[in-house]
Amino acid sequence: MIRALIFDFNGVLADDDPIHMEALRKVAGEEGLSFTDEEYLDQYLPLNDRDCFNLLFEKSGMTLPSSRLEDLVRRKGGYYFQAIEAKTVLFKTTAAAVRAAAGRYPIAIASGARKEEICHILKQSELHDCFTAIVSADDVQFGKPHPEPFLRAHEKLKERDTSLQVLECVAIEDSIGGIESAHQAGMRCLAIAHSYKADRLRRANPEWVIDSIADFVPWLEKEVSK
Fold it and tell me: In terms of domains, do 108 and 197 share one?
């Protein structure tokens, strides 16, 4: 039984993974580091900014003090906001999907993005109030593929409905690391083949796979009717 939906943000609702990649690449280049598009998809895409920079420096054999890490995250965020300042980055059918979901269930976000990024985009599109809870990189100690983001989202949803169980939450994800995070949290997962092809996502054994957020409403109506 589905009683709540928890969305990832980047690559699920927002079509901004390439923007995040280029912002990360710009800061990495300033530090004398680099990565390929393939490496980003394979290793960095599911991670939050802090984990991305920690991994970049670790792979280069360099030490990254926490004080310096925060500066890197700040710089990357600045480049990201510069890139999205004059445009909306949501997928065309995101608003319809979010409103349909919110009309059926309490919904939340569990994302590795920074809260100011998520809230800026949602408020710009008048979708912020659709969500009961938003869990960002700022709210957790461990990012995906660790289960903490989804478990924290469940905790926040449970503040509104104390009977809500983890198994009654469905996560909506676009990455293998995200699917692993949801499963480790004890949730079923709907995978959306935005960032990876469906066949690749199926290797992580999500319960459902759809090609696009445009397919979300038909999926929702089918599951609700069961």
Answer: yes
Helix or strand run (H / E) with residue 124:
helix 115-124
Give me the pLDDT at residue 12, please: 98
Query: Tell me, what's the pLDDT at 226?
Result: 74
Distance in angstroms (rounded) separating the CA atoms of residues 32 and 77:
19
Cα(158)–Cα(51) distance, rounded to whole angstroms?
28
pLDDT exceeds cutoff 80 at 30: yes
Exposed/middle/buried for residue 131 (C-beta within 10 Å: 0-12, 13-18, 19+): buried
Residues 38 and 140 in one domain: no
Q: For 159-187, how does the pLDDT look when each residue is reduced to its tens digit (9 = 90+)?
A: 999 999 999 999 999 999 999 999 999 99
Residue 8, token pair as written in the block = 């990832």
* Amino acid in the structure at residue 34: S
Is residue 85 scored above 90 in pLDDT? no
| Residue 197, domain extent | 4-16+89-224
The domain total for the chain is: 2
CATH number of the domain where residue 153 is located: 3.40.50.1000
The burial class, CB within 10 Å (0-12 / 13-18 / 19+), for 194 is: buried
Return the number of other C-beta atoms located less than 10 Å from residue 82's C-beta: 12
Q: Where are the alpha helices (DSSP H) in 60-114?
A: 66-84, 94-102
Q: Which amino acid is at 85?
A: E
